[in-house]
Write a structure and sequence with these properties.
Blueprint: H1 2-13, H2 22-30, E1 35-38, H3 46-55, E2 59-63, H4 67-79, E3 84-87, H5 93-104, E4 110-113, H6 121-129, E5 132-137, H7 152-155, H8 157-162, E6 170-174, H9 179-189, E7 196-198, E8 206-212, H10 216-226, E9 231-235, H11 239-251, E10 256-259, H12 265-276, E11 282-285, E12 298-303, H13 310-317, E13 327-333, H14 337-346, H15 352-370, H16 375-382, H17 396-399, E14 405-406, H18 408-420, H19 427-435, H20 440-444, H21 461-473, E15 477-478, E16 488-489, H22 491-497, E17 504-505, H23 510-513
The protein binds adenosine-5'-diphosphate (ADP).
Domain Helicase ATP-binding: 26-195
Domain Helicase C-terminal: 219-366
GO molecular function, one term: hydrolase activity
Amino acid sequence: MLDQARNILKNYYGFDTFRPGQESIISHVLQQENTLGIMPTGGGKSICYQIPGLLLEGTAIIVSPLISLMKDQVDSLETLGIHATYINSSLSTQEQQERLALLRAEKYQFVYVAPERFEHHTFLSTIKQINISFLAFDEAHCISQWGHDFRPSYRSIVSTIANVTTIPFVMGLTATATSEVIQDIQTLLGVSDEAVVNTGFARENLAFHVVKGQDKQTFITNYLTEHKNESGIIYAQTRKQVDAISSKLKQKGYSVASYHAGLSEQQRQLEQNRFIQEEATVMVATNAFGMGIDKSNVRYVLHYALPMNIESYYQEAGRAGRDGEPSNCILLFSGQDIQLQKFLIEQSLMNETKKTNEYKKLQSMINYCHTDTCLQQYMLHYFHDYSLQEGCGKCSNCQRQGERIDRTREAQMVLSCVKRMGERFGAGLTAKVLKGSKDKKIKQFQFEELSTYGLFSNATEKAITNFIHYLVAEGYLATGDQRYPTLQLTKEAEAVLKGQKQIWMQQTTVQQQDTSNYDT
Ligand code: ADP
C-alpha cells in the first residue's frame, strides 16, 4: 500500500518524495493503528491524513478547531478532483442538511468538522449510518488541558463517538506538543509509543532574535525600511496595540492588513485575504491570526510583546519561512510586558494547578529572553528535542560578537547575596542590595549590614537585574513561581559558590554593561 501512497503523492500532488515523517506516519495509519504525528509548521501534515483517506475505504472525518480553514482545505482537495466537504456553523441549515444527505449517501472521501459538531444529534445519527475510514484530529494539542489552546469539546469526542459507532482507528497531528501534552494525547487517543512519529521541531531556515532595550516602534520602522517588499507578520498583544502599529505604518505608506477578535468575521476574512493575496505586505495582528494559514513566503514574524509561553511563540514565529527560505523571527522584549501576561493568567478562570503551570511556562518564555545559549536550541530543548547538536549559527545569540569572559566571581557575589537575604526576595530588591541603595525596604530588613551590600555600587540597578535574569535563565537561580518570584539557589549555584563550576558569558561585566550594547 505504501507504493500506492507514493503514486498518489506523485500523481495527485506532484511531489517526488515524502518529507521527513510523512512516510512513517502514513505507514502506521495504513496499518490502521492509532497514530500521533508531530511535525513542525509547514512540515506537511495534511498529506499524512489525506493520502490514507484516499487509499482506505469509507469517509475520513477531520476534526479541526478552525472554521475559517476548512473551506481552503476543501477547495484544495476539490481542485485535485477529490470529493470533500465541510459542515459547520457558517452554513445555512439547508446547506447543512444537503451536505448531511450527501454524507449519508457516502459521496465524500473527507468531511471536515469543528469539535462542536459532535454535540449535534443529526450529525451523530448520520455518521452512525456510514462507513468511516478514520477520525483525524488536526491541531491535536487542543485535546490536552496542558496544551496552550485547550478546547474542552475536543476532549469529549472520543467518548461521544464510541457511544454511537465504531471507528477503525484515530490519528492526531500537531506542530506543538510538550512531553506532557504528547502523553495526554496518547492516553486519550490510545496511541502506543511506537506509533508516535516525532520529526523534531528544528527549523533550519529560521533565524531567531531577541531585541532588548530599544524603542519598539523605531525598531519596526527601521526594520521595515530595510525589508520593504517582504511579506511579514507583526504580532501585538492587544487590539489597541494592533491599531496603533497599523496606523503608524499606514502613515508611512505601507500597505497593511490588520486582524483581531474585535473585527467582524467578514472583516477578518477580508483582511486575511488581502495579506494572503499580497495586496498587503504587512499583517499586524493579535494571536487570533494565523492558525492554519498557509502562506509560504512570510519572511519575518515580529513579536511586539512577550508571548505567554514557548509553545505559542514557536508556533507563531514558525509561520515565517514555510517555503524553506531564510526568514527572521524577532521578539522585542521589555520587562513591562511580563505584567500583562501575569495579569491575564491571574484573571483567567483556570484552576490553581493550571495557573501555577502557566506561570512556570511564562518563566521559561522570560528565560528565553535572557539566555545566551542558541535560541533555537533553547526552544528545542524545551520540547525535549535534542537533535540540534550545535548552535544554529544564525540567531542573535550565536551571532553575537565578542569573547566569552569568566563571570564566576560576579555570579558568586550575586548568589551569596541571594543566600544572605534568606532566598525570600525577588530580583529587584536583590539588585538594590548589591547596588547599595538606600531604599526603605533595605533599612526595614537591615540589608545594609550584609557583606554583599553595595558590592556593585558602580553599576546601575538595571544592569545588575539583567545579570540576575541571566543567572535565572541559565538555571543558577530558581524563581519559585512567577506569582511571587523569589530567588532561590539551585544545585548548580552551590557548585558555583564552592568554586567547582565556572560561569563564562558572552556578555560584558555588570560594570561595563551600561555603556555596552548588551541590550541590543
Ligand atoms: P502543515 O499542516 O504541517 O503546516 P501543510 O500540510 O500545510 O503543512 O504543508 C505545507 C506545504 O508543504 C504545502 O504547501 C504542501 O503542499 C507542501 N508539501 C507537503 N508535503 C510535501 C512533499 N512531500 N513534498 C513537497 N512539498 C510538500
